[in-house]
Structures are given as structure tokens and as C-alpha cells.
Amino acid sequence: MQRTVDLFYRFLELLLVLLLSGMVVMVFLNVVLRYGFNSGVTVSEELSRYFFVWLTFIGAVVTFREGSHLGIETLVSRLSRKGRITCMILVNVLIMLVSAIFFLGTWKQLPINATMHAPVSGLRMSWVFGVGMFTGGMMFLIAAERLFRIVTGRVTDDEISAFAGEHTIEQLMERGE
């Protein structure tokens, strides 16, 4: 099961690379065409904006899974193990709540976006903003899995230390920092 999950996140990372590459190619091509030939590809501006939206939201999921979001560890690092675990529980419950609200808000907005089309490409706007359901759902699942592991006592000391910002040099190097 873990192998399937890892493959899924590898796919998301590849998708992020493709989205970023697509943005770079479209924007670069448009700049060259505008300044070199006084023309341009009108759909590239719109698509690069949409790619950026998807890149941001999919990147948030990957970053959340890796535990790479910004955090304020000043208070948490001063707490005992029990205090850190309590904070981990509270944080994951809060993330689940916000993710559920985000998912449901996107779900309610979807019928409106499905009737609207992008001005240049004609793409349904539900394809653009529907990524909110993916992001909200995935972040909810990640937080729920973490909460389950914390409550059942399966959280490791390394995870608790990382939550408190106590990374070793090896851990930082492993994450590419």
C-alpha cells in the first residue's frame, strides 16, 4: 500500500514539473513572439495562469505530505513530549476542519464554475478551480492519517522532533534543505 501511495506522490511531483515547464515554455515563447515578431499566442497567457493555479494547489499537497510548510516551532520546541503530541493533535484536527470547509466550498461553487468558460481557451472554469476539491480532500486525508497514527501511538520520536523543529543535519540534507 505504501508503495502505491509513494508512486502517486511521485506522479504528482512529475505533474508539478510538467506544469512548471509548460508555464516556462508558454511565457518564454510569448515574450519572444511579442518582442521579436510583434505577435503572440493569446491562449498561452490564460493557460499559464491556470497552470500556476494548479501548480500552487498540487504543490501544497506535496509540501504538506513532506511536512515542509512553514511552521512556528518556538513554542512547540519548549513543550514536553505530551505537550507536543497534544499540539500535533490540535493542528491536525484544525487542518482537517479547514480542509473540509475548503473542499465543501469548492463543491458548492462547482456548478457555477461548470457553466462559465474561459474567455480565450473556452475551458470550463470548473477544471481550473476544481483543484480546490483535490487539495482539500488530499490534505484532509493526510491530516486524518496523521491524527490516526498519533492517537493510536504510532507516531515516531523523529516525527515529534520534526514537528518541534528539531531537525538533524542528516534530516535536512535528506529533504534537500
TrEMBL record:
The keyword DNA damage does not apply. GO terms for biological process: C4-dicarboxylate transport. One of its GO terms (cellular component) is plasma membrane. Residues 23-152 form the Tripartite ATP-independent periplasmic transporters DctQ component domain. The chain crosses the membrane at residues 12-35, 47-64, 85-105, 125-144. It is found in: Cell inner membrane. Keywords: Cell inner membrane, Cell membrane, Membrane, Plasmid, Transmembrane, Transmembrane helix, Transport. InterPro entries: DctQ, TRAP_DctQ. Its main location: membrane. GO terms for molecular function: transmembrane transporter activity. It comes from the Bacteria. It is a multi-pass membrane protein. The complex comprises the extracytoplasmic solute receptor protein and the two transmembrane proteins. Belongs to the TRAP transporter small permease family. Part of the tripartite ATP-independent periplasmic (TRAP) transport system. PANTHER family: 2,3-DIKETO-L-GULONATE TRAP TRANSPORTER SMALL PERMEASE PROTEIN YIAM. This is TRAP transporter small permease protein. It comes from Qingshengfaniella alkalisoli.
